[in-house]
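Structure record:
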Amino acid sequence: MKKTSISTAVLAALLATVVVTGCKKKEESVDTTAQPAATAPAPMTEPAAPQPMTQAAAVNVSAVTVGKTAAADKSVAPTALFAPKDVIIVSIRTDGTANNTNVGAKLTYQDGQVAGEQSQALNTTGAETTNISFTNANGWPAGKYRAEVTVDGRAAGTPQEFEVK
């Protein structure tokens, strides 16, 4: 009987060791994931992703205007009321330097439904006006709209509200 008790005690000790070892392995795996992070900065300095962010920051939207027609200098007279068949022009005035910077405009209708979205690449070393035109062959539904501008996917400028009647 003593051999059985000793065998049971040894088995219990082995089981406890496995459980403790299993717990330690989990802790070690956390430490193991932390250690590769220390070697991760080398690859992080290689991608060029931060450079476009810096370029995007070099371009500031100084004005957003919504209108129906553009002059020869691309300026647009502000309009708050449109007819269903009107062309809607979102005029974006920027300052700064840009190299293939994405400038976009999005029209939303009533409760946030997207009525139109377009973008253009901006290349400039100073002040520039970019006009993005929206048309709707079926006519714009009556209601309130909002024009929002983005630069490289980030909100920029002051959103403009207008109405179609």
